[in-house]
Amino acid sequence: MPERQDTFFDVETWYEGSDKTIALIVLKGLGSYVRNNESETTYEVVSGLATFEFEDEPGKQFFVEAGNKVTVPMGIAYRDQGDVVMLATSTPPFNPNAVEIIQDNIQ
């Protein structure tokens, strides 16, 4: 298990409709290990480099650089890390009450 570290995490919702939510995410460090039980989310890296790890592929890391996307299926636990700005599109719309925090890395 990685050690807890200082992490900067900020989310700004840009669009929230009946079909989806689009948000701008700024992450510097290691994100929390979470599972969204209601939405599939596609992360498009705008700048920087993100690393994603998924519970269904333990030990495997996916590197996503600017201009590329990764989709996290509903119900799959994951964590991300990096010095990165991303657009996150959640379908159906994001519901914070449906997010299960498995390991909190945000201080």
Structural write-up:
The protein has 107 residues and is mostly beta strands. It has one domain: Jelly Rolls (Sandwich), CATH 2.60.120.10. The chain contains no helices and eight strands. Strands 1, 2, 4, 5, 6 and 7 form a six-stranded antiparallel β-sheet that branches. Strand 4 and strand 5 form a beta hairpin. The chain is globular and about 35 Å long. The model has no long low-confidence stretch (mean pLDDT 91).
Question: Would you kindly provide a brief summary of this structure?
Answer:
It contains no helices and eight strands. It has strands at residues 8-16, 21-30, 33-36, 40-54, 61-65, 69-72, 78-91, 99-103.
User: What is the percent of helical residues?
Assistant: under 10%
For the CA atoms, what is the radius of gyration?
13 Å
Question: Which CATH architecture is right?
Answer: Sandwich
Shape: globular
Distance between the termini: 16 Å
Number of helices: 0
In terms of DSSP E residues, the strand content is over 45%
Topology-level CATH name: Jelly Rolls
Specify the structural class. Answer: mainly beta
Q: Can you tell me the CATH superfamily?
A: Jelly Rolls
Low-confidence stretches: none
Please identify the top-level CATH class. Answer: Mainly Beta
Mean pLDDT: 91
Q: Compute the number of strand runs.
A: 8
Number of domains: 1
Identify the quaternary structure here: single chain
Largest sheet: 6 strands, antiparallel
Give the SSE string: EEEEEEEE
